[in-house]
Every structure is written in C-alpha cells, then in structure tokens.
Amino acid sequence: MHRTAQQLAEAAAAAMQARDRVADALGMRLLGVGPGSASMQMSVREDMANVHNTCHGGYIFTLADTVFSYCCNSHNKNAVAVTCVIEYLRPAYIHDLLTADGSEQGLEGRNGVYDIRVENQKGELVALFRGKSTQVKGEVTDLDKR
User: Fold this and answer.
1) What is the pLDDT of residue 146?
2) Most-buried pick from 36, 52, 110, 128 (CB within 10 A)?
3) Per-residue CA distances from 59 to 72, 79, 101, 103 (Å)
4) Would you state the pLDDT for residue 1?
5) Directed axis angle between helix 5-19 and helix 57-72, to 10°?
6) Beta-carbon neighbour count of residue 131 at 10 Å?
7) How far apart are CA 4 and CA 93, in angstroms?
8) Domains in the chain, CATH or no CATH each
C-alpha cells in the first residue's frame, strides 16, 4: 500500500511514542509531526531545577534531542544522531512551558541536518539546537504488518 509522506511520518511517530520511555518520564507531549518536522512541549518541573533554580540545561537538551529524533526518523528509516550542538540563550524556570519545533534543513543520502528552536510560553527563545543524523539499517515501523 502506498502511503503519503505525512502518513509515514505519523506512523513512525506513533511507533516511537509507544517506546519512548524518556519522553514519557519527562512528561513531553507530541504536538505534531510531518515529513522532516516535529513539535513537542514539556513543562519544567521542580525536580528539573539546577543549583541556580533554573531548568538544568540537560533537560532542555533532552527536549530538543527528542524532537530531533522524531524529525530524523519521520521518513520511517531508522536514524541516529552523529553530532548535536545546543546554544542556550536564556534560562527556563520552574513552571515554564517549553515548546521545541524542529525542521529538516537537508537530507542527502543517509545524512540529515535538523534545526530545533526551543521557546518558553512567552515565545522567548531559550535555545537553538542543531543535530546531524545518519540513517542505519531498518525501519521505525513495519507498516505492511498492520
């Protein structure tokens, strides 16, 4: 059966969500997915605060990295990170609602580049993340067995 790129992205995201224990544990919510794109939200909890009483950068990175994974796996080809870099531009605070929006910048052969913007509930830019991926063997979900 031929599936559209959007249907493929949605099926891959559904399969990933069922297995994504980190996103579940951190309360991340998938807002949307498309071919090469994804959007998620996460509320900053008290147990995510560092010694400065701001959100630990590792949690912000994890949110952005999770969006990156949904973006680069949206073509239903297993893809993993090769490199990731993040620039923190402002702190996030307890009870902030962070939204991470990611988009594919380029996909050539097995290699992809993705940018993710992380903003707070005021629309203020918290961080910019760039991830580079490579596709490995296998598919995220076997659509033909459904």
Assistant:
1) 46
2) 36
3) 20, 22, 15, 20
4) 60
5) 140
6) 25
7) 40
8) 5-140 (3.10.129.10)
